[in-house]
């Protein structure tokens, strides 16, 4: 493995971990990130790798950085909920991590996901795997179905702003997707092999649909739904090249939270029922 490849992998790892912390409130809105030197020591990487990761996070709108100043958090992932229990978020903003965590506290965990990549899902599943290993939770069955776009279709994003046919950004997207789907399989297979979870099933299907939203159906009782917002940003490739790109917000997309309740005609129950039917229909009729 070349040094450039190693550096690219380290850059991706640091970027992903910081996104998870930002999206789940690990670094609250308005707070400052640790210094570059502190982050470099924590992740065991060079300051150059940290700087590249911070530049990418800045281009996505998460942080603002000034010359010689620490980076300040200017965006977090918003989850808006109409569920009665949303009142718990008045003092502690609702984030994706705790919602996934609650799902894994059941004996049977069912997740139906429609997404552009599995990057954020991979991060959250790894966190739950550590909780299982620590004995904090003990689900008996995990069933995950994931819909991804076809790897061969031509999508409007991500693409270079001024060179639509530049293959590097679609190739980068495919590489990110393949890395995280492989990671998901490894983590879930290990839970089963180590006899920590008796039954584990991961199914991945692809459709020739360009994702315009991210969707989580949690235990068929809750739905998180968020639109992918097209943005212009600078994408940093694994070799350090910067490309002005048309991309979409994934981690930072605002999500709406809907919960099925005892009233089948309530807005939450209707949304969950309709979403579940949509996912099942696409899974059976359009996905391969």
Q: In words, what does this structure look like?
A:
This protein has 288 residues and is α/β, with parallel strands linked by helices. It has 2 domains: 71 residues, Winged helix-like DNA-binding domain superfamily/Winged helix DNA-binding domain (Arc Repressor Mutant, subunit A, Orthogonal Bundle), CATH 1.10.10; 207 residues, Endonuclease, Chain A (2-Layer Sandwich). Helices cover 38% and strands 23% of the residues. The protein contains 7 helices and 12 strands. The strands form 3 sheets. Strands 3-12-9-8-4-5-7 form a 7-stranded mixed β-sheet, with helices on both faces. A 3-stranded antiparallel β-sheet has the order 6-11-10. A two-stranded antiparallel ribbon has the order 1-2. Helix 1 packs across helix 3 and helix 2 packs across helix 3. The longest helix is centred in the middle third of the chain and has 26 residues. It is globular. The two termini are 34 Å apart. The N terminus is likely disordered.
């Amino acid at each position: 493995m070349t040094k450039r490849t190693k550096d690219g992998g380290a850059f991706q790892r640091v970027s992903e971990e910081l996104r998870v912390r930002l999206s789940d409130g690990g670094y609250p809105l308005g707070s400052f990130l640790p210094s570059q030197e502190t982050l470099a020591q924590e992740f065991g990487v060079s300051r150059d790798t940290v700087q590249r990761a911070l530049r990418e996070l800045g281009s996505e709108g998460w942080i603002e950085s000034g010359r010689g100043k620490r980076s300040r958090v200017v965006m977090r992932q918003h989850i808006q909920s109409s569920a009665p229990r949303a009142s718990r978020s008045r003092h502690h903003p609702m984030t994706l991590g705790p919602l996934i965590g609650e799902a894994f506290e059941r004996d049977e965990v069912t997740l139906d996901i429609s997404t552009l990549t599995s990057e954020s899902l991979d991060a959250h599943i790894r966190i739950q795997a550590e909780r299982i290993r620590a004995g904090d939770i003990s689900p008996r069955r995990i069933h995950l179905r994931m819909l991804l776009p076809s790897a061969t279709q031509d999508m409007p994003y991500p693409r270079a702003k001024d060179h639509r046919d530049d293959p590097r950004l679609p190739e980068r997207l495919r590489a990110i997707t393949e890395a995280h789907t492989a990671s998901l399989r490894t983590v879930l297979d290990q839970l089963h092999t180590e006899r920590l979870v008796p039954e584990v099933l991961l199914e991945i299907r692809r459709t020739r649909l360009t994702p315009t939203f991210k969707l989580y159906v949690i235990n068929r009782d809750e739905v998180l739904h968020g639109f992918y917002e097209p943005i212009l940003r600078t994408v940093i490739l694994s070799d350090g090249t910067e490309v002005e790109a048309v991309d979409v917000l994934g981690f930072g997309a605002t999500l709406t939270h809907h919960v099925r309740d005892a009233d089948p005609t309530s807005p939450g129950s209707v949304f969950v029922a309709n979403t579940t039917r949509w996912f099942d229909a696409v899974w059976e009729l359009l996905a391969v």
